[in-house]
Specification:
The protein is mainly alpha-helical. It is built from seven helices and no strands.
């Protein structure tokens, strides 16, 4: 009914979402502090270009990707079409920012004569980015653009959900590998002595894991899933009827 009060969010959901955002912003601040205090800062056409890479990957592949995954838990009572668009836009923005980070590291390596794509970090990171791009394209094709039948969407949705969480985990793992690699390159001899840079970077790694755990917990709570609105159920049944009737094998069973 028009004017009906918006149902309250499930108990605990708002608190966990708030914690995730606090952790995410702290991640970005800690990454900036590490790069600014110990690695000289961030600049594009300079010896500091490499530092654009970790900043962009934490912002895009972790924070924004995590927020995109939370969209369906946070916006529970808005129109699903609007929620889908926001979900896709956040993932798209994450991809653009991550691409900037990838370009930065390749250009920095070329300038300094460092070989590319030889480490485990680079393999996992590039796999995460390419699969993330594929996931985004498939998601837009199946759920935003017209053409996919109800049954096809129903078949793909569990794959989309699983790989969304799996790629988020892979992205965090790639970041952890990158932090370790960067520390071993820069403070190999003093790292074992608990120098401040090493402690700060390790703290960043722990916060990455914590952010992933909080987001993962919110996503896997069945009772926190977005409930379908009444009008969405009606539209879903209409869409199912239309697409099945129009399919080559459609018709009454």
């Amino acid at each position: 009914m028009d004017g009906a009060p918006t149902p309250a969010s499930p108990a605990g959901l708002s608190a966990y979402v708030a914690v995730s955002q606090l952790l995410g912003l702290t991640l970005l601040a800690t990454t900036g502090a590490w790069l600014g205090r110990y690695r000289g800062g961030v600049a594009w056409h300079s010896p500091l270009q490499f530092n654009v890479h970790p900043l962009c990957m934490v912002l895009g592949m972790v924070f924004l990707q995590g927020d995109a995954l939370l969209v369906y838990r946070v916006f529970r009572h808005e129109a699903k079409r609007s929620t889908k668009v926001l979900h896709a836009l956040l993932h798209g923005l994450a991809l653009v920012i991550a691409l900037v980070g990838i370009i930065a590291v390749f250009e920095s390596h070329r300038t300094k004569g460092i070989p590319d794509m030889y480490s485990l970090h680079s393999w996992c990171g590039m796999a995460a980015f390419m699969l993330y791009l594929l996931q985004w394209l498939l998601g837009c094709g199946f759920f935003l653009l017209p053409g996919a039948s109800f049954s096809l969407r129903g078949w793909y949705k569990p794959q989309h959900v699983f790989f969304g969480i799996a790629l988020f985990v892979l992205s965090i793992a790639a970041c952890l590998l990158g932090i370790t690699e960067m520390l071993l390159f820069n403070i190999r001899d003093s790292y074992s002595h608990f120098v401040p840079e090493g402690v700060l970077a390790n703290t960043l790694g722990v916060m990455l894991v914590a952010f992933g755990l909080v987001v993962g917990y919110v996503l896997t709570r069945d009772d926190w899933k977005r409930p379908p609105l009444a009008e969405e159920l009606a539209l879903s049944m209409d869409f199912k009827t239309l697409t099945e009737d129009e399919s080559p094998g459609g018709g009454s069973q």
